[in-house]
Amino acid sequence: MSNVTIEEIQCNPLKYLHQVEAGETLVIIRSDEPIAELRPIKSRKQLRPFGLCKGEFTVPDDFDSPLPEDLLSAFEGK
């Protein structure tokens, strides 16, 4: 973790962004007081592997069958 002033960041912002990209955390200070922390995002969202829940549930044969009239009426507010 490094301390950096606002003025230093304004003079060369890409230098500090490259440091953050490399994994470093920067504490931005003003008048020797920390005011913010600039850090890399921990992880990028990864896709879930295909078939992760395989075998944990089964889709019933009547999954896409029409709903019974009473249930359909309840959904429609009748």
Structural descriptors:
YefM-like fold, three-stranded mixed β-sheet, 3 strands, alpha+beta, 78 residues, single chain
Q: What coarse outline follows from CA principal-axis ratios?
A: elongated
Q: What would you call the quaternary organization?
A: single chain
Strand order of the largest sheet: 1-2-3
Got a strand count?
Answer: 3
CATH topology label of the domain at 2-38 = YefM-like fold
Helical percentage: 25-40%
Q: Determine and state the CATH class of the domain at 2-38.
A: Alpha Beta
In the CATH hierarchy, what is the architecture of the domain at 2-38 at level 2? Answer: 3-Layer(aba) Sandwich
Rg, please? Answer: 27 Å
Report strand %.
Answer: 15-25%
The H-and-E topology, N to C, reads as EHHEEH
> Strand pairing plus helix content: what structural class?
alpha+beta
What does the main sheet amount to? 3 strands, mixed
Task: Return the average pLDDT rounded to an integer.
Answer: 91
Give the CA-CA distance, first to last residue. 62 Å
Q: Specify the number of helices.
A: 3
Low-confidence stretches: none
